[in-house]
Amino acid sequence: MGAIEIFLVSLMIASCLLPSVSAATRHYKFEIKMQNVTRLCHTKSIVTVNGQFPGPRIVAREGDRLEIEVVNHVHNNISIHWHGIRQVRSGWADGPAYVTQCPIQTGQKYLYNFTIIGQRGTFWWHAHISWLRSTLYGPIIILPKKNTPYPFAKPYKEVPIIFGEWFNGDTEAIISQALQTGGGPNVSDAYTINGLPGPLYNCSAKDTFKLKVKPGKTYLLRLINAALNDELFFSIANHTLQIIDADGVYVKPFETNTLIITPGQTHNVLLKTKPHFPNATFYMTARPYVTGPGTFDNSTVAGILEYESKTKLHLKNLPLFKPLLPALNDTNFVTNFTSRLRSLASPQFPANVPQNVDKRLFFTVGLGTSPCDQNKTCQGPNGTKFSASINNVSFILPTTTALLQSHFFGQSKGVYKPDFPYSPLNWFNYTGNPPNNTLVHNDTKLMVLPFNTSVELVMQDTSILGLESHPLHLHGFNFFVVGQGFGNFDPNKDPSNFNLVDPIERNTVGVPSGGWVAIRFLADNPGVWFMHCHLEVHTSWGLKMAWLVQNGKLSNQKLPPPPMDLPKC
Predict the structure, then answer these.
(1) Which parts of the sequence belong to the Plastocyanin-like domain (predicted)?
(2) Residue 262 burial (CB < 10 Å; 0-12/13-18/19+)?
(3) CA-based, 20 to 30 A from 506: which of 130, 337, 351, 477?
(4) Residues 273, 274, 279, 282: what is their CA dihedral angle, to the nearest 10 degrees?
(5) Closest C-alpha among 118, 23, 16 to residue 62
(6) CA angle, 140 as apex, 134 and 144 as ends, to 5°?
(7) Rounded distance, CA 64 to CA 27, Å?
(8) pLDDT value at residue 132
(9) What is the pLDDT, as a whole number, of residue 297?
(10) Would you state the pLDDT for residue 186?
């Protein structure tokens, strides 16, 4: 049995994987239950999978089928999203509540059934309703097909590292209050690494993630940003990281001391340990990158990198080095780092960038306002509610059905309109002085695309209520980031600088603060697909919209009927 097979078996045991019917079908059972958890000297009952925080790992190979039974034992409605998994012709398993399914109600269950097609790398799963993903999340590790090597030297060991946030209070109460007042929700009390805040917070030294390594070895770190609200800088003191993968897509390797990872993104990095025992230990730390006008958790999470020694040493007596992270608002670092990301673009892993475009779209993204509900007091500007919008449309999710169901059964009337605007109705200087009217239009509009449409989408930040970066995640597709810049996008000049050879391919991208990003993708996956900001997605702040990709002509270009156990609203 090879090292990868041993790794796969050990991960399956650690992840409570049930015996498979066949080698290519992997069965998991997610029991949604309450569990008492203590962090920062605060004990509270949280929603978990199988009583674990963070939740269990899912491990499979490219080409495998996953069958994950989710049983809801809590009073909250539940849905689970498999972040980054394309769900080719399996949109019923994608997970966002009221988009592809009604949520799983108390006492009910649902079998998420899908195949991993053409993907390998690090992904993750999380709740996709309300703010339950603050505790309901875990890694998905997709290994290459059997006997297929990595396009880099085989690592000695693989370690998932998942960043999160800890709230001493009840996150459902926090989001409920924010929705009522239209203001920003309370910030977290700590960031976490694998569920642990680390020694830089009060009453937290015992809750520290420790990565124990051997000298002269190469470790593959699978980094996931599962934080609710913050892009994070990450670094390990006195060590260099080699970036080899972004969102499950191989990249041209490069070395860095520090990286930036937005909510929803993943990175695989290689850590080469020092050749000999260094007589020291090292902090691995993360803290936020901040661009917007809202409040944020200005704290630092730390884990510890410890070297194993053949002699018995008291590690507490060794010097402990701390990395120097960029300033909280260091946009130059973020720009330089993201500009280094390039697809591997090799014969085995090509970058199939759409060279011709069928549909060009221009979306403005940012914050506006909505009127306060009658007899309510709201915390937005001049007594309004903050409302995020795309092309001035603040997206309203249905509550009595799911968009995919209403589309599939031809029952869209009264649920959604198929006329999402291709560009903003009112043009203005997007990054200059904001317009006087900041009110948005609240509606449920979908962007309809014929099957196999090649799309170019430019997303432009706006200064209406302050410039800020927006990490946008697209369900159902990967896309190529062909260009980005600051200021207003110039359709006459900027496209000449697009990279159509080896742009980074991913599923989550940050729209730069005060700038724009251009992506291209092929709409070859029929269904209804959510696109949203991975910050505060289920508040009035959360940027969101949905695409409706129509069926193709061939049988393998059509969405199959829903499974019999699809939850009902």
Answers:
(1) 32-146, 158-309, 423-552
(2) buried
(3) 130
(4) -40
(5) 118
(6) 160
(7) 11
(8) 95
(9) 85
(10) 80
110-161: pLDDT as tens digits: 999 999 999 999 999 999 998 899 999 999 999 999 999 999 999 999 999 9
Q: What angle do CA 338, 283, 150 make, to 5 degrees?
A: 50
- Which residue's entry shows tokens 């670094």? 235
Residues facing residue 72 across a β-bridge: 32
What pTM was estimated for this model as a whole?
Answer: 0.94
Rounded CA-CA distance 196/199 in Å is 9
CA distances from 54 to 37, 208, 224, 227, 265 (A): 11, 14, 12, 12, 17
CA angle 74, 173, 567 (to 5 degrees): 35
With tokens 């902090």, the residue in question is 283
Dist CA 287 CA 165 (whole Å): 11
Please tell me the predicted confidence (pLDDT) of residue 63: 96
Burial class (CB in 10 A: 0-12, 13-18, 19+), 557: middle
d(CA 454, CA 474): 15
Give the amino acid at 517.
V
- Name every residue whose Cβ is closer than 8 Å to that of residue 566 and which is 6 or more positions away in sequence: 92, 101, 102, 110, 405
Residue 15 tokens read as: 């992840």
**How far apart are alpha carbons 429 and 312 in whole angstroms?**
65
Residues in Cβ contact with 492 at an 8 Å cutoff, skipping those fewer than 6 apart: none
Pairing state between β 42-49 and 80-83: unpaired
**What count of other Cβ atoms lies within 10 Å of the Cβ of residue 381?**
14
One-letter amino acid identity for 46?
I
The pLDDT assigned to 370 comes to 87
- Are 453 and 486 in contact, with CB atoms under 8 Å apart? no
Give pairs for 422-428: CB < 8 Å, separation 24+. 422/359, 422/361, 422/362, 422/447, 423/361, 423/362, 423/363, 423/391, 424/362, 424/363, 424/364, 424/391, 424/392, 425/391, 425/392, 426/392
Query: Looking at the DSSP assignment, which residues form a beta bridge with residue 243?
Result: 254, 269
Per-residue model confidence (pLDDT) at position 95: 98
Judge whether 455 and 358 are in contact, CB under 8 Å.
Answer: yes
Q: Is residue 439 exposed (0-12), middle (13-18) or buried (19+ Cβ within 10 Å)?
A: middle
Distances in Å between the Cα of 362 and the Cα atoms of 153, 436, 490, 517 are 41, 22, 11, 10
**Residue 536: what pLDDT?**
52
Residue 205, φ and ψ in degrees, nearest 5: -60, -35
pLDDT of residue 541: 54
